[in-house]
Design the sequence.
């Protein structure tokens, strides 16, 4: 019986331990320098959507500044400091209710950061997206946000935001 | 010019003031005695769904015990103290992206309260629902929950819960 760990076991443990630590703690910033907001999964709900054109389900969350603005109807413009976050999944039929469409595989989390000075060149919003369960930053270089701006241009008069906050009691 | 309010104006103001106060502060308990959980709109997201059979959109929220259990995969059974809440809206096309389905008029908020002792007669869950923007309790008398249990019976093996928690990084 060997009670002491072998050298190879020790090395293996080190590698596994390091990988887990890396995955859990280090998410790289987007190419424009924006960092993934800590704790965004715990933010409050502003709305949800089901995009039938690309078969995805979305929940639109907000940081405290954004949620306060949404509930007060103060969204055109949104206040500086507001962050909107979207979690996006591929759709599937809900396992236990086949006529319901529900989230399947996680696609990405994407964000808009309102700062009318800092992000003036992109309409007052900083854009960032992290793909997949390993949260890989989207975009080849810092100009990637031009793609975001182009897509959001039809809602320029809505302070560049597609989402309409859901009505709540 | 009359500067002083008339008696009728004063009475009207009193009635309006009282009604607003009532709507904002008093939500009646469900017929089984369950009270609307304070601050449920601020709970974290567990999943979302689009029910194509009755054209509604739903976000499934949880109190801290429920969210912790959902994230740990500890949902069969859910732990005592867990509360699941659903906000339900009629569907509409998103104003700014017509192929997206989004929340329209608010329908109701409904809840399941896990307590395997207190709610043993209804499968270990207490049920309650508040309808509309004025949050009127659902159900004629305390036996209303039999309707909930009947509908949830197909998912008895899933601890009576339809929702599958969404996968998140």
Sequence:
């Amino acid at each position: 019986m060997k009670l002491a760990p072998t050298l190879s076991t020790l090395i293996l443990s080190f590698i596994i331990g390091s990988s887990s630590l890396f995955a859990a703690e280090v998410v790289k910033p987007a190419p424009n320098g924006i960092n993934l907001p800590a704790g965004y999964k715990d933010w409050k709900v502003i709305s949800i959507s089901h995009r039938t054109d690309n078969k995805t389900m979305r929940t639109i969350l907000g940081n405290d500044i954004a949620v306060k603005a949404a509930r007060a109807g103060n969204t055109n413009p949104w206040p500086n400091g507001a962050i909107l976050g979207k979690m996006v999944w591929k759709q599937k039929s809900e396992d236990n209710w086949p006529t319901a469409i529900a989230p399947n595989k996680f696609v990405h989390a994407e964000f808009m950061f309102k700062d009318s000075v800092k992000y003036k060149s992109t309409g007052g919003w900083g854009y960032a997206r992290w793909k997949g369960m390993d949260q890989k930053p989207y975009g080849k270089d810092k100009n990637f946000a031009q793609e975001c701006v182009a897509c959001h241009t039809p809602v320029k008069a809505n302070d560049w935001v597609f989402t309409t906050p859901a009505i709540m009691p």
User: Anything to note?
Assistant: The helical segments of chain B are 7-25, 64-72, 145-152. The first helix of chain B runs from residue 7 to 25. Residues 9-24 of chain B have pLDDT under 50 and may be disordered. The longest strand of chain B covers residues 97-114.
